[in-house]
From TrEMBL:
Pfam families xref list: HSP20
Protein name per Swiss-Prot or TrEMBL: SHSP domain-containing protein
Gene3D superfamilies: 2.60.40.790
Species this chain originates from: marine sediment metagenome
Domain SHSP, residue spans: 32-137
C-alpha cells in the first residue's frame, strides 16, 4: 500500500473491539452475580495425607473457615482491603478483596475429624488424613 494513502481501520479490528466489549460486559455480569473470588490452590498427596495449599496473602487465620466431609474440603473467608492512603487515587487494583471460597473434591476418603489447618506467610495449609484403608502402601 502506498505510504501517502490514509489508513482506515480494518473490519477485523472493529470486530475484535466489539468482541472485547462483549467479553467485558459478560465479566462484569458474572462478578455482580458471584461476588466471591477463588484463591489459587494446589492439591498434593503422600502415603498418609492429602494436602491443600491455598494462597491467602494478608488473611489471618481467624478470617478463614475450614470444613470437610469424607470427600470434600470447603474453605471460605474474607480478605480485607488495605487501608487507603490519604489523598491517593488508585490507578490499578489487581488484588482480590472481599469474600472468597474454594470447594475441593478429594479423590479418596479422608478422616474429617483429624483435618488440621494453618496459615503462615500468606499460605493456608490444610492437612487431610486419609482413612486407614485408603493409605498408599
Amino acid at each position: 500500500m502506498p505510504a501517502d494513502l490514509p489508513r482506515r481501520p480494518s473490519r477485523f479490528v472493529a470486530l475484535v473491539e466489539e468482541m472485547q466489549l462483549m467479553f467485558d460486559s459478560f465479566q462484569v455480569s458474572v462478578e455482580k452475580r458471584w461476588p466471591t473470588w477463588r484463591p489459587s490452590m494446589d492439591l498434593l498427596e503422600d502415603e498418609e495425607n492429602f494436602f491443600v495449599l491455598i494462597e491467602l496473602p494478608g488473611v489471618p487465620q481467624e478470617k478463614v473457615e475450614v470444613s470437610s466431609s469424607e470427600y470434600r474440603l470447603h474453605v471460605r473467608g474474607v480478605r480485607q482491603p488495605p487501608e487507603p492512603h490519604i489523598g491517593a487515587c488508585h490507578h490499578y487494583v489487581e488484588g482480590h478483596y472481599g469474600h472468597f471460597e474454594r470447594v475441593v473434591m478429594i479423590p479418596a476418603p479422608i478422616d474429617p475429624v483429624r483435618v488440621t489447618s494453618d496459615v503462615k506467610d500468606g499460605l493456608l495449609t490444610v492437612t487431610l488424613p486419609k482413612k486407614q484403608e485408603n493409605r498408599i502402601a
